[in-house]
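Carbohydrate-binding module family 96 domain-containing protein
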Amino acid sequence: MPTQSFKVGEMRNKRTHNSKTWINFDGSYTTEIHQGQIHYDDEHGNLHNINTDLYDEADFDVIDEPVALEGCERFKQAKVESKQAKDKRVLNRNNHNFQALRVPFDAHIPRNFQRGYTIGKGVDKLTFKPVKASPSMGQVESVDRSIITYQDVWNDTDVELKIQPNGIKETILLKTDRAPFSFAFEVKGKDIADDFTAGSLKLIPAWLRDANGTERDVEMVVNRHNDNKVYVELSADVSDLVYPIEIDPTVTIQPGASTGKDSYIRTSSPDASYNNSDELFVGQNDGFRFLIQFDLSTIAKGSFINNAILSLGGRGGIGSGYIKAKPYVVTEAWSEGVTWNNQPQHTDVGINEIRFYTGHAIQVDITNIAQNWFTNENNGLMFKQTDTTTVSASFHSSNSVNESNRPKLEITYNVPPSKPNLLIPNGGETWNSLHTITWDSSNDGSDSNSTPTGDLQYNIQLSTDNGENWHDVVGLTSSGVTSYEYDFINESETSIAKIRIRAYDGYSYGEWDESDGVFTIEHNFAPTIPTDLIPSGGSPQNREELVRLEWKHNDSNDDPQAEFDLQWRLQGNTTWNTVNQVTINEYYELSNLPHGTIEWRVRTYDQEGLASPYSDTAVFFAGDKPSAPTITSHNNGEVISTANPTIQWSSSGQVGYTLRVLESGVEVYSYFGTTNKAHTIQYDLENQMKYVVELTITNSDGLESDADTATLDISYTPPAEPILATSTEDAAIVIHIDNPTPVDTEPTVKYNNLYKRIDGEFVRIATNIEPNGQYTDYAVASGEQQEYFVRSHGDNNTYSDSGSILELLILNVAIIASAKNPSNFVNIEYGSGAVGPDVNANLQLERTLLNFAGRAKSVAEFGGNITESLPTTFIVKSREELGKLRNLVRNMETLLYRDYRGRKVYVTVGGLEELDISNGMYEVSAIFDEVDYKEEV
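Structure:
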């Protein structure tokens, strides 16, 4: 490899939230590990450099670049609203706010400061709404677009909000002595604790600086008022200060464990923790020490460390000059809440002492220490003073507001080849002589300077004692191969053999990959465990007949079965009944079984007499088949004068029954019952037709009887055929039913059921309509012809059907209604006179993209779920109509949406967004999510 070493380019695939990795010219890598987040996640899981610029929501319709996962839903909604406003030519920028789209948290910044600003991380969100502030409109700086300024928010007081990589920095600028010196913000969202934390969010203690550079702490408290509101209140002591004065409250995202940890400890406060401090102290006669630990998971174990430099940003200290100190290796785990009294054990590893100057940054070479971290445990470092002086030096900690000042560790290293993936043997095989060991190839990195995969060689070893001892199968294979043929004939037989393999790139060996389980070296192959046992799972069998037991003989050489041992017993017995037969048949028939649960298992032999293990134990129930039931009513061939006859029967031992009705051999009705011995057929049998009833019973042994049958000859006097008429009104079709007066023996109509053709089949949509009644059908799509018929039921338990009738409804508006009570509806339309709302349609399929080795592109796997939604914007013309709409949504039930375009969908609505517009009208936005709904009753 070349001797020069400089960074060639960043390897983006190795990014983590707090690290970057470069490939160097000599093939090594350099990784910068930070104590704070430097990348954000987009919604696809990709990492991008943090950019603290603010973006105007009014221009979101032209943004197509990736945005942060945090806040992406807010971005998408604002993008839709921006586009809709521009399409309608009603865009008013004052109605749109700002967002930081490329930071690892949700930052929503108002254009009007009165609205308050929001910061969030995951489920933790806080909104700070200023109390008694003026409606000052913010201006984003042209040079630094992370800053927005609001003029005269309070009297002679400006406010500046600045987006930082880890939070929002607010600066309150008191321009003259007429400015107030106390301020309050109503806090909404996550409950904020007295220590100013709210989950992953934290308020940094406020401070001020005047025109002369004088700094003071600012009193900051959390108050919970009687109105159940929470306020953060700031009170500044401005006496003897020179204006202008800057007050600095800042909200940050607290770092997670993956970004490392640091803290200092002091002997004068031995039980105090300083993990929230933005400083790390060392010195003052060893009265201060600090600990630091970096997350090194981005760098592979076993890497060879060429160089490791720790950078600490200088902060200040006590006194002036310098101290002598050095790092010690921490030998046990510790937490960020560490104190002097519970500080971890540490050891001196011979690093030379270093001069630490107060207020100065420093770089510390920890190469030897870092190398040990990649072969042993990493518990970080402790910095201790080595001389005696009262001076102390301090450095910026991971809590520093400025990310560039935080501790950073830069490591340059070489990566050994990756671990190959051993495929065969991987446990469970039985091998005799010549066999092929196979594996997936290793790689030596993803850059052009790495050893090509085709040049890697492999060292393969065998153990015959489950990994206790190993010997070479081959010292090094040929270059680039992924298989190796080896004759095991001279290896000793064993049932606990293992293979392991590692790659070699010409410089170093990678990690071993070992067989997941043991395999057998046997110079003859035994059959494997028999499978596919039938009967099993407790299935019932008739013990009065021969019960056939079946299995599958399995042999890796396809050697046929020569013999079997079959064992069975009544569950609870300790002794097996054993059957041995020399046969190739993979079944055996048992007779005269005892009543009860039978357990059985089998093992098979190959042609050379080697036996398989016994199979898993299967169970079945040997029971007695019940006698067939006897249908007592109605008798075979009896004329039935009702459309819903009751079948009665006699049986013995019944715990369940199955009743089927067949017409010309085709099943039209079935019912599964329990112990009842009578059943009324819940299917309207047609007049002048013949049907066959089949009845079987099941007993407590789970066995089904033979069937008894009866032929039903249906002949009855139905009610007079009903007459249908239709009309349209109130966005619905009205079906009018005329039940003629009974003549002679015709029965009187008790009620009517209404049917409508849906998806090609008639479905009952209404029941118990009174004679000569009517039904209003609101579930009708505009422009789609509807077909109905009515079934009239007489008082003699018969029926007659009307002919079908067609009707067409045309809607001029869109309608949203209750699905349960469609007469409760609201018309929705444009205020400009258009006939319907602005509707988009979204279709989402359940889909997973899978990646496989050897395939350049993904493979899609689709699930069964389909998500469809209709984002909709419309005008409601009065407060009364708006109230009706709100009530529909608040009822939290399924709604029916129809419009003049022919849509008819059942939906749910999660909420409404309302905007007051002119003339007492309201612009409403909602998302209608389609749901399954059955009209059949």
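The chain has three helices and 75 strands.
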